[in-house]
Amino acid sequence: MRRTGYRPRRPRGRYRSGGGVVDSTELLPIGRRVAYWRGRRRLSQQVLADRLGKSKSWVDKVERGVRSLDRVSTIEDIASVLRIDAAVLLGRDSRPAVVPEQAVSVELVGAVLSAYDTASANGAVLPVDQVAASVQHAWTAFQHARYPQVVTCVPGLLTAAQRVHAEDPVSGRPLLVEVYRVTAAALLKLGVVDLAWLAADRAMSVAAGDRVRVAAAAVQLGQVLRAAGRSQPAVSVLRKAAYRIAPPDLDGGPASEVSLCGTLLVQAALSAAGCGDDRAAAGLLGEAAEMAARVGDGHDRHRTGFGPTAVDLARVTAAVNLGHADDAIVWHEKAIGRDGWRWLVAEHRAAHLVDAARAYLLAGDPVNAGRLLADAEQTAPAEIRHRPAAREVVAQVARDRRAPATVTQLATSIGVT
């Protein structure tokens, strides 16, 4: 960022820690730091929004912590308008949340994805049943939140599935689509959005012509688009995919297709919430709830876990993303009281507990937020220890002086303090 030559006066609030002097603003969430420096510069939210080319509502959501600032370029733009260094806004948030030991495995996955067109040219073709069993094992590991294990096995699995597909496209296509899907899902958990996008795109390409496989692959594509900050395009893609797979008669339609359609509508609702569109999110979740009532809980068709409980969990995530903390907490308490809650896979339950922790944090309740994070870590340790988004929530809760000691210890153990 270009230096302006301006050196802001140090805020008055300071304290000593470890022998050094720390600005009190470093303890604030990044949105609160934006509000602090905007006030120091005597700028209204509207003026800041105009200079950034954003809406006043966008600025307000950033300052309240409803909308996260996850793009360095956006943070640099804000810092430039506020005439401060970007590091001042980042503060403690500038500490990386990624897990370094995963870098080698991820790099191998990237190498195989980059060489997909030559992988089938050489080497022995394994029996279809053997590859299918390995694909099943990868999905099982993912649903138990063993993300490092999945990423480690993906390079060999991708190569094997590509060779089977080249030898026998009919038998190989569903296998290859599923390998790309689980690859995208695991990479998303580790925060590697670019490679996850590539894997999801490959899944869509291989699935072309098979409406069910396309719909299944679209689930991961929608998640990737949302993670990449492209929520608006995600809504369009997901709705089209959902209505394409929707049976003409829901009561008489195959449960597997109803589940896929409902899952796609849930993903579209979460994307709409990411855009701040309350109305669209509510409408899409309402449609999904009708479908969920028809298929019931306790099923995992196409690795969706779709049912009434899954829709309630999605309501929590949507409410958090829209800034409705109280609504999110009410839906959370309702969802975990369902029988279907116990039937969900560990990955789904742990991911939800992290979202529910975000709701309590937004409501100013770090104690209950910490309790849910501890529950998530017990349910699926890798969800907390290897997923950057979850690690950041742990870090945010641990920064609050009211946080329980268990969260502080957890934050220390995973290296986010």
From TrEMBL:
It comes from Micromonospora echinofusca. Residues 34-89 form the HTH cro/C1-type domain. It comes from the Bacteria. It holds the Pfam family HTH_31. Transmembrane segments: none annotated. Signal peptide: none annotated. This is Helix-turn-helix domain-containing protein.
